[in-house]
Amino acid sequence: MKNYLSRRIEPVLGKCLREFPCVVLTGPRQSGKTTLVRHFLRETHALISLDEPDVREVARRDPRTFLSTNKPPVIFDEIQYAPELLNYIKHHIDKNRNMKGQYVLTGSQMFPLMSNVSESLAGRASVLTLHPLSWGERLGTLPSSSPVEYPVNGIPGGPGPDGIAEGMLRGGFPELTVEKDRDSRRWYSSYVQTYLERDVRNLRNVGDIEEFLRFIKALAARNGQLINMADIGRDIGLALNTVKAWISILVASHQVVLLRPYFRNMGKRLVKSPRVYFMDSGLVCYLSGIQTAKHLLNGPMGGALFESEFIAELIKWNCNKGYQPALYSWRTSDGKEVDCVMEEEGRLWPFEVKSSSTFKVDFAGAVADFMETFPEAKHGRVVYAGEKVWSLADDRITAVPFSWVSMW
Q1: How far apart are CA 162 and CA 318, in angstroms?
Q2: How far is residue 228's CA from residue 155's CA, in Å, rounded to a whole number?
Q3: DSSP string, 50-95
Q4: How far apart are CA 40 and CA 37, in angstroms?
Q5: Is residue 111 in a domain?
Q6: Are residues 157 and 75 in the same domain?
Q7: Structure-derived torsion over alpha carbons of residues 281, 284, 286, 287, reported in degrees to the nearest 10
Q8: Is 3 part of any domain?
């Protein structure tokens, strides 16, 4: 396929197709789901798009006949538009339970899609999430490291703060990476309009789309911050329950993630306010009116954008491995905090993220505080916009350039 960008999730997708009768691929609008399955399964599966109104109507009116006509192996693209198919897909699978990779279902609306999948395809389907391109996918590098591994052959020279800012400004959606001359602001304007008109209305029947746009802009201005839902409601004149419902829409459609505080007591993780992070920096820049790399670097949101970009890379790495990300924030009552904690195979990994191109030893203070509080955290990382690798605390804390993420 011309201009196809290889995706890190491909090996896991292949493995799931060999192990499960059905694979569900979810993720935000325009993250490349259709392109991926069309390319990866071009020789084995037919692709039926339920985004087409006439196809969707037939599928919903007579799902039994529709499935008899479109036999596996088959891809049903945008399955959320014809949830009536799921029970019939279940019956087809149960007749041939040992036949793997029969159905591939894609969709961009997490709530209705996953509730229907849980009810109809429990134990029969593997669920994967495809986010916009990682830095490694954008640059076309091969994975040779991970967030929990130090690269044996070192870390390649990075783009520096200006290059990182340019990449963040453009974002990770495949169309903007392939079509390098495409005007990104016009693209994001169209993206937001389509997202509001199709995903938002379908998820919760939001009546006032303009009001929702004001809400998402207010949330973008708080990217990387603790969420105070009551404050957001007061600022833009929304009821608290509406703010909660609308944040759930953004989470369900994979636009934002919430990082809850890490505590040893699992129950406490739900007590404190979470931090909100947008999954695509280009979208945040568009919503916040950031139009140049200089504005991004020197403006008040630069540090938070750099932090959210790294956290998005951690989430993409987990999802591309088929894992459910276990990421948290950490902050004590006396002000100690670390940007992100990842739990992986029973181990804790604290990360501190700095947008500075110059490393300072005190950058590692937050990581050291966390490791002192949680001795099971054997190693920590400071990620910054420079080029050199620094080792501290008897090599237990490593400061690494942001370009490290392109190796995952």
Answers
A1: 27
A2: 38
A3: TTSHHHHHHHHH-HHHHHHHSPSSEEEETGGG-TTHHHHHHHHHHH
A4: 5
A5: yes
A6: no
A7: 170
A8: no
Name the one residue in this structure whose structure tokens are 């129950």. Answer: 267
| Structure token pair of residue 202 | 């379908």
Tokens of 359: 């490393």
User: Six-digit token pair at 49?
Assistant: 């798009």
pLDDT tens readout for residues 154-182: 777 777 889 999 999 999 999 999 999 99
Are 22 and 124 in contact by the 8 Å Cβ rule? The answer is yes
Q: Which domain holds residue 338?
A: 135-407
What domain count does the chain have?
2
- Given strand 125-129, what is the order of strands in its sheet? 46-49, 74-77, 103-107, 22-26, 125-129
Summarised one tens digit per residue, pLDDT across range 333-360 is: 788 899 999 998 889 999 999 999 999 9
- Between CA 404 and CA 145 the distance in angstroms is 8
Structure tokens at 113: 């899609």
Of 103, 129, 155, the last residue of a domain is: 129
Secondary structure of residue 348 in the 3-state scheme: strand
Residue 353 and residue 360 in contact, taking contact as beta carbons nearer than 8 Å: no
Query: Are 255 and 403 found together in one domain?
Result: yes
CB 130 within 8 A of CB 138: no
